[in-house]
């Protein structure tokens, strides 16, 4: 993964907007250096063998709309900082070994998809939001 860390540090200067590293046989932890790519709006790391926890530094990706981390071998809990991603429209964490509950910071989600079934997370008093989020977990 050290090559990937060096690669990410170089990408910071070009204001990368999309990064698809799906199906690249990546192993090890997700580098926290992904958090230094503030212009990124699409990050696809699915279908690898990434392990350990989801780094909280992903919460620094303020323009992120799509985050796909499935399937991998990730464990631990979903970092609450992911909720800081105000433009997030799709978060796929399925087919990992995540534990705990979905953070209560996701209580305001308009829709939740869990194992392919639509589950409503909003109550009738929730105002209309410009961005609804599809959350795919566990």
TrEMBL record:
Gene3D superfamilies: Ribonuclease Inhibitor. Its main location: membrane. The keyword Signal applies. InterPro entries: Leu-rich_rpt, LRR_dom_sf, Plant_RL_S/T_kinase. It comes from the Eukaryota. The keyword Signal applies. Keywords: Receptor, Signal. This is Uncharacterized protein.
